[in-house]
Amino acid sequence: MQQQKQMQVKIDLSTLENVSCPDCGNFNFTPVLQMKWVPALVAPSGTLSILERPMFRQCTECKKLLDPQAMVEDRMRHPPVEPPRIITALGGKEN
User: How many structural domains are present in the chain?
Assistant: First the structure.
């Protein structure tokens, strides 16, 4: 059986749009964990334990909790309208 080669794509991060908080426009977020009790009967260790699961991102400015998956789904339903690009007649460069 042949293994498929995974294509690696190099992305220039400076060309990507920043994600911003929909409430305040801030660009910085901290991860938030959801913690679950795992009963001893189902825990791999056989003892009561806690499972930490990364869930949301919290805006560092307004403290709003954001769900990245919900944000992606919303963006797919309502894509942003890209402003028109202005090209100068002489230089051919975008402004």
Answer: 1
Predicted TM-score (pTM) of the model is 0.55
Q: Which domain holds residue 42?
A: 26-77
Q: Is residue 41 part of a domain?
A: yes
The per-residue pLDDT for range 63-83, each reduced to its tens digit, is 998 888 888 999 899 888 876
As a whole number of angstroms, the distance between CA 42 and CA 65 comes to 30
Q: What is the DSSP string of the chain?
A: -PPPPPPP----GGGSPPP--TTT----EEEEEEEEEE-TTTSTTSS-EEEEEEEEEEETTT--EE-HHHHHHHHHHSPPPPPPPPB-TTT--B-
Tokens matching residue 34: 């959801």
